[in-house]
Amino acid sequence: MPSAPMWTAIYPWSRTLSDTTTTPDAGLTEAAALLRHARHAVALTGAGLSAESGIPTYRGSGGIWTRFGEPTIDGWDLFCADPAGWWRAALEHNAVGSEFAAAIDSAVPNSGHLALAELERMGHLAHVITQNIDNLHEDAGSRAVTEIHGNRRRVRCMNCGTRDRLEMISLDHLPPTCPECGGVLKNDTVMFGEPIPDDALRTCYRQAAAADLFLVIGTSAVVYPAASFPIMVRERGMPLIEINPEPTELSHIASVIVRAPAGVALPALVELLRGER
Q1: Catalytic site residues?
Q2: Which of 169, 188, 207 is at the close of a domain?
Q3: Cys-Cys with 127: which of 12, 144, 210, 230 at CB 3.0–4.6 Å?
């Protein structure tokens, strides 16, 4: 992680951790004040939020990749070379099952997901950008969501970009094809080496450009381009709220830090904002 002086040299508006709110109660009060006055608040969520629903993270202690190794980095190339073969292997793997797939299939939104949906309904949150592929934001009731890494429950046409639920697609013939244009369908999750879909990326950049407040929730902030969005917002002089039990690569440029799990901090924010109505 870059040292505080380095961040300060690059970003004059950055702060040292000792200058930044770190106690949960004080941080929540400041975060609520910022949300109350924001016109277009945007949140970026990561694996830490879904971990509170029992879905293992990828990295770190106990993470899927830490225990079993990272997936092949040429997944996109393998799919493009033989889509039918990729689908056959994927279906065989699903038949056997995996810890990660089982965790996603059984997961339900936690109090953090529900609080974000409530902040949207209250008019305090304009959009959620999520790195998670589990559909839990939508299950919780959030409507303005961009899944930058796709959705495990969906497929996407490689020709026209149409997305559909996996259970709506016939897998009698592989690879499955798009009912709209006949193009090849792949699972919607973004593979290593695969470009992020243009429509999702454009939406993320639009939201970052429009945001007058940005929340970073449950993400280590090391995966790009997602990690660049809060930096873009801070470069425009807009405030950044970090909600995470642990320090991240963005902690030194955060305006407010709440060192607490999302499932604790976000419902508390909702209650603070309700109490001020």
Answers
A1: 149
A2: 188
A3: 144
